[in-house]
Amino acid sequence: MIETKRRGGRPRSEQAREAVLHAVDDLLVEVGYAAMTMKGIAMRAGVGRQTVYRWWSTKAEILFEACVDDAEEELAVAPSRTRLAEVTSYLDALMRFLAYSPAGAGYRALLAAAQHDPAVKRLIATKDVLRDSAGTVLNRIDPYRPAGDHAIDRLIGPTFFWIMSGRDPAQLDIHGLARNFLHGFESEEA
Question: If you ran DSSP here, which 8-state letter would residue 3 be given?
């Protein structure tokens, strides 16, 4: 769970927290990020606005917490028998997350908002779920080589750009991207 600015008062109810996180996911799909409001989130969750404001300051904080919770689960791939299978499995999960998942839609909305809202930019910089998940995969395929920024960017970049530029996810050659990544990864000097 992402730690957001907590105010004093009663302890957080896990049931209310879950209701708010589900509400923000639903509203994102139904009305979009720009039209979403704290009041609307509270109404959809069946909690008072004061409850929402007690735990989160902005709709971005709520959406970010929901995205991170879901992304950590959706981007966690089981270890595979081969390096190619491992990378292919991860890239497939990344593509599905960015293109089809409600959490991925939330992540994309936050990235867009971060381009003009410094507070959202600072918020998403606190936890990079794509980088973290990619680092886990890279550490499994070569535990003796630290998962540096360059390798992580090379792993995530092509799929991320494909989806963020609005291309058809069905046309993305995940297996080819995995082969190309491994070819470059294996030829890099450690």
Answer: -
